[in-house]
Description:
The complex is a heterodimer of chains A (257) and B (196).
Chain A (H helix, E strand, L loop, with lengths): L12 H11 L9 H17 L6 H18 L18 H21 L25 E2 L2 H13 L14 E2 H14 L2 E3 L10 H16 L3 E5 L6 E5 L3 H8 L8 E2 L2
Antiparallel strand pairs in A: 1-4, 2-6, 3-5, 4-5
Helix pairs in contact in A: 1-4, 2-3, 6-7, 6-8
Chain B lengths: L2 H14 L6 H7 L5 H17 L4 E6 L2 E6 L4 H8 L8 H13 L4 H8 L4 H9 L3 E6 L7 E5 L1 H6 L29 H11 L1
Antiparallel strand pairs in B: 1-2, 3-4
Amino acid sequence: MSTNVQLEIFEGPLDLLLHLIKKNEVSITDIPIAAITEQYLATLELMQSLNLDVAGEFLVMAATLIHIKSRMLLPAGETEPDEEDEGPDPRADLVRRLLEYQRYKDAAEELEQRDVLTRDVFVRSVAPLETPAPAGFRELSVLELLAAIRRVIERLPKDNVHEVTLDKITVRQKMTLLLDTLRAQPQVQFEALFSEVKTRMEVVVTFLAMLELVKVRAIRIFQEVQSGPIMIEAAVDMETAAASATVEETEEEQHGT
Amino acid sequence: MEREDLKSILESLLFVADGPVPVQRFCEIVDGASKDEVSAALAELQSDLDGSSRGVHLVEVAGGFQMRTVRANADWVKKFLGGRPARMSRATLETLAIIAYRQPITKAEIEAIRGVDVDGVVNTLLERNLIRAVARKDVPGRPFLFGTTPEFLQLFNMKDLSQLPTLKEMDEIKLPELAADELPAEDEAAVEAAEE
């Protein structure tokens, strides 16, 4: 009789474990670790033999299972004293994680049963949930952005005076400044943002601030034509952007020159 | 203003609106109607539509009111509109549920619950405008904290976050089709036998 491992797409190690527990009809609070570990490893092997990419997390869990299994073999009382804080049942932590995960799987299922817009219910104009990029603009690749920042750095004054000052500009401050600028005018040119900038550090900090804002989708960087000016505009309404940027300063973010 | 007139005006406004309309907005437009009158008229309109076999309902969603088609007609509407809506993957849905219940939450905290990397999923959710960065957490690395957006409420037909179903308590969680206290020694043997 061949090992009957149905290969589904598992969301992760916890998902696979829950599947095995269900399949074996065992209680989640009293998992037969030896048997489950064996089946878990068999599934990983099968995934590997099918050339499926077995993510690192699956292997970490395999190690955890084997560790638990070995601790279960030790008679009670023989566990080293310093391991006491791990609780009386070596499975306890895993059980807690499994239950927690199952809890959100249930919640996800309940969400899915609601009247989902554009699946179960519809509105008159068929609400576009995604705002399409304005027509006629091409998206910029990171390389083009890097080329632009190199041009800015090359334009910096190249004097050899070493002035030891400690200007503290933080990425956070620059993010706020950038948002202020965009509140005053809807679009700014990429290079205009660097017109006042004098040091390499400040260029870098400004650039980082810009990338941070792109990452949280507060601003959009685009180009109308290839090798044309790179433009920056607010991607969300300014209140939202300000909300994600208003967090106090801390020392760790300080950059000095 | 007569109640029936007000209801008629509100229905027209709701028909042309391209998103949920807050009560406040109706008050600004229909001058002479108080907030209470507008709310009462909306409630009546809502029950008029609910009570009959109409194809649209008036739904309170994301802080406003909106006309939505009834679920029973979904297939006809889909056929009419053509194309199919993007289905949400399990990974997306699970991650969204975790964010909805635990917001504000960092990526690392989501990963701790799901046991897998969530970079791609979080980016998809950001792209679809269903979540947004709301602040940064005051821990090393200052990671972003994510929360849901009004679009999330619209997508799942919710007035506000209080309409999220209550999360189960940990001891209420049962795996589907799991017979509770049947167990272990003989099962273990059975499992091993099945493995041969």
